[in-house]
C-alpha cells in the first residue's frame, strides 16, 4: 500500500499533479460552452412552446394556498322597533350622562363594549325603497323618515311639506324664503369662483334638510352637510334620504373629523352657532378646515342687522355690537371681507404669510398654534384657542393654486409628499388601478353606475381612487380614512372629493339606512387586530339601506367568516374573483334583504 513504508510528502509533486488539473479545467470549460450553445440554439423554441407548461408545474407566489378563517354559524335577533333610528354614538337615551355646556351632549359618546347592541336595526313600518335620484332631491317617502315635528315647525319656512305619502322639498329655508336657487344665484354673483370650477368642496354647518348642498350639485360643487342629532330629529337623515351628502356632527369642544386646509367654502345660514362666544373658538375651527383663499359665507344674524334686527328678538345696538365683534375676530384670524349684499356676507381666508407672522407676537389673540399641535389631528381632538397657520411648504394647496375642477381630480396633489411612500408615480398607479377595478365591479354588480345606487361609502380609501373612477356616474362617495391609517384624507380633498376620518371599532356618524353601497378594500386585514369583525359588519348592516349592496374586497383568509356573519344578518352574498383572478384575494358581493320588524312596539 502506498505510504506504508514511508511518510507521505507534505509537498505534492507539482509536475505530476499540475497537468491533470489544467486538462480538467479546460475540459469543464469546453463542456459548459457546449451546454450553453445547446441552450441558446433552443431558447426561442423552448420559451414559445414550453413556458405555459412550466408555469403549471411551478406554482406562482400569488397562488399560495390561504387557509381561511372559519366561524360558527350565527343568527342575529331583531332590535326592538324603538331602535329604528338608532345612532349608537349620538344616542338621545344617553344624553343625560353628559354636560349641556357648549352642547357637549351632542358630540360623539359611543357606548362601552358591554352595552353594544348585537341585533339588527329594523326599518319603520311601511318602509319603501327610496325614490331614485334625481327625483329624490325634491321628494321622499314619509314612512321612510316619519317625523311630523319638523314638518309642523318648518313648513312655514318651505323646508319641507307633507303631501299624501310623501315629503316634498320646495327648496326654501329660513334665510331663503324665495327658494334656494335664487339664494345660490345671489351668492354666485358675490363669489364668481363658484362658477368656473375654482370652488369644488364645501361644508354647510347647521344644514337643515341640506337644500343648499343639494342645489350646489347642479353647479359641480360637492358639499358635506353637517348637523347634530338635535330637536329637529332627522336633518341629516332627510338629507341622505334625498341623496345629498351629509354627516352627523356639531362644533362643540372637539375638532370636526376633517383635515386642515381642505374645504374651498364654508357656509352658515342662520345656523345658530354662537360664533363670537368662547373667544371665537368655533370660528377658529372653520379657519382650520378652510383652504387658504377659501370663503366663509354667513347669512343671518348679525348680517344686515340694520334691517333685520326686529325679527331676531333683540335690539339694534346688540346686533351692531355682535357684528363688530365678529368682524374684529375674523380680522384677527386673517380673514378679510370679500363681498356683502343684503343678508349675505362673504369673508376670505388669507394666503398672506405676513398676516400669520403677526400672530406669533406677544399678547396677540388668537395666537398662532405651536408646533406641538398637529393641524390634521381631528379624531377626538379638543378644539384649541389658536390659529392653525397654513404650512409654508404647501405652496400649491391654496384655492388659487389648486387646479380647477375637473382637472384637479387627476393631478397629484402637493400634500401627497406628506404620505409615507406617497409620490406622483404611486398616485398615477392608484388612479389607473381603480379604473380597472371599477370596470370589474360594474360587471359583478350591474346596478353600479345606474340610478339604483346613489349614496356610496368607500370605507377605507387611500387616495379616493374608487370615487374618482366612478365620478361620471349618478352617485357620490363618502371617502373614509381610518384614524389609525396613514393620513391620506388631505389628498382626497385636494382632488376635489369629500370624506371623513373614522375608527371602524366604533359606529359611524350617520342614521340607519342611509347608504346604497358600501365598499371596502382589505379593511378586515388592516383592522381585525383592533376591531371585532362582527361589530363592524353589524354597523355596516345598520347604515346600509334595505336592498342595498356591499362590495367586500378581502383576503381569502377572511372571506368565509365574513360570509357566515353576513348570512346571519339576512344578507345574500356570493364570492367572485378579482379582476386578475388571484387566489389570495376575493370579492364578496352582498345584498341586504328588505324585512320588516316582527315587534310592533318596544319591549
UniProtKB/TrEMBL annotation:
Q: Membrane topology for this entry?
A: Single-pass type II membrane protein
Subcellular localization, per the record? Answer: Endomembrane system; Membrane
TM segment ranges:
21-39
Biological process (GO) annotations held by this record are: methylation
Where does the UniProt entry say this protein principally localizes? membrane
The entry's cellular-component GO terms read:
endosome; membrane; trans-Golgi network
Q: What is this protein called?
A: Methyltransferase
Amino acid at each position: 500500500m502506498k505510504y506504508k513504508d514511508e511518510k507521505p510528502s507534505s509537498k505534492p509533486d507539482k509536475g505530476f499533479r499540475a497537468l491533470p488539473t489544467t486538462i480538467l479545467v479546460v475540459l469543464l470549460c469546453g463542456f459548459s460552452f457546449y451546454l450553453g450553445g445547446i441552450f441558446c440554439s433552443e431558447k426561442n423554441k423552448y420559451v414559445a412552446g414550453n413556458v405555459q407548461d412550466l408555469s403549471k408545474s411551478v406554482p406562482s407566489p400569488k397562488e399560495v394556498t390561504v387557509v381561511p378563517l372559519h366561524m360558527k354559524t350565527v343568527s342575529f335577533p331583531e332590535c326592538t322597533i324603538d331602535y329604528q333610528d338608532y345612532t349608537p354614538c349620538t344616542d338621545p337615551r344617553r344624553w343625560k350622562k353628559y354636560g349641556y355646556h357648549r352642547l357637549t351632549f351632542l358630540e360623539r359618546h359611543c357606548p362601552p363594549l358591554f352595552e353594544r347592541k348585537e341585533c339588527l336595526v329594523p326599518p319603520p313600518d311601511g318602509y319603501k325603497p327610496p325614490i331614485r335620484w334625481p327625483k329624490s332631491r325634491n321628494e321622499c317617502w314619509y314612512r321612510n323618515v316619519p317625523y311630523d315635528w319638523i314638518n309642523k315647525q318648518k313648513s312655514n319656512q318651505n323646508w319641507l311639506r307633507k303631501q299624501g305619502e310623501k315629503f316634498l322639498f320646495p327648496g326654501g329655508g329660513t334665510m331663503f324664503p324665495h327658494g334656494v336657487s335664487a339664494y345660490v344665484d345671489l351668492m354666485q354673483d358675490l363669489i364668481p369662483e363658484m362658477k368656473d370650477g375654482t370652488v369644488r368642496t364645501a361644508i354647510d354647518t347647521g344644514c337643515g334638510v341640506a337644500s343648499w348642498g343639494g342645489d350646489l350639485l347642479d353647479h359641480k360643487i360637492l358639499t358635506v352637510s353637517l348637523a347634530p342629532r338635535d330637536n329637529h330629529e332627522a336633518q341629516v337623515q332627510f338629507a341622505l334620504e334625498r341623496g345629498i351628502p351629509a354627516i352627523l356632527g356639531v362644533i362643540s369642544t372637539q375638532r370636526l373629523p376633517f383635515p386642515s386646509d381642505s374645504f374651498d367654502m364654508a357656509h352658515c345660514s342662520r345656523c345658530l352657532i354662537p360664533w363670537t362666544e368662547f373667544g371665537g373658538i368655533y370660528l377658529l375651527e372653520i379657519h382650520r378646515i378652510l383652504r387658504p383663499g377659501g370663503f366663509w359665507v354667513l347669512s343671518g344674524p348679525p348680517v344686515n342687522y340694520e334691517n333685520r334686527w326686529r325679527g331676531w328678538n333683540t335690539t339694534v345696538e346688540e346686533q351692531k355690537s355682535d357684528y363688530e365683534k365678529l368682524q374684529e375676530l375674523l380680522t384677527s384670524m386673517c380673514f378679510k371681507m370679500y363681498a356683502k349684499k343684503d343678508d349675505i356676507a362673504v369673508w376670505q381666508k388669507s394666503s398672506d404669510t405676513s398676516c400669520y407672522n403677526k400672530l406669533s407676537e406677544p399678547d396677540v389673540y388668537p395666537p398662532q398654534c405651536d408646533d406641538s399641535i398637529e393641524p390634521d389631528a381631528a379624531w377626538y381632538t379638543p378644539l384649541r384657542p389658536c390659529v392653525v397657520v397654513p404650512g409654508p411648504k404647501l405652496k400649491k394647496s391654496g384655492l388659487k393654486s389648486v387646479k380647477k375642477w375637473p382637472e384637479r381630480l387627476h393631478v397629484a396633489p402637493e400634500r401627497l409628499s406628506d404620505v409615507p411612500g406617497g409620490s406622483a408615480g404611486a398616485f398615477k398607479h392608484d388612479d389607473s388601478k381603480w379604473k380597472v377595478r371599477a370596470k370589474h365591479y360594474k360587471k359583478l354588480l350591474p346596478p353600479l353606475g345606474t340610478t339604483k345606487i346613489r349614496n356610496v361609502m368607500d370605507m377605507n380609501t387611500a387616495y379616493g381612487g374608487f370615487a374618482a373612477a366612478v365620478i361620471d356616474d349618478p352617485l357620490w362617495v363618502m371617502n373614509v380614512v381610518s384614524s389609525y391609517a396613514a393620513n391620506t384624507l388631505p389628498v382626497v380633498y385636494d382632488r376635489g372629493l369629500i370624506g371623513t376620518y373614522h375608527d371602524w371599532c366604533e359606529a359611524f356618524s350617520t342614521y340607519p339606512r342611509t347608504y346604497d353601497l358600501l365598499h371596502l378594500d382589505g379593511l378586515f386585514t388592516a383592522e381585525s387586530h383592533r376591531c371585532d369583525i362582527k361589530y363592524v359588519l353589524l354597523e355596516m348592516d345598520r347604515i346600509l339601506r334595505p336592498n342595498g349592496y356591499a362590495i367586500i374586497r378581502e383576503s381569502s383568509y377572511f372571506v368565509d367568516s365574513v360570509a357566515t356573519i353576513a348570512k346571519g344578518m339576512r344578507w345574500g352574498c356570493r364570492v367572485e374573483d378579482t379582476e386578475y383572478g388571484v387566489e389570495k384575494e376575493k370579492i364578496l358581493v352582498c345584498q341586504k334583504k328588505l324585512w320588516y320588524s316582527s315587534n310592533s312596539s318596544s319591549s
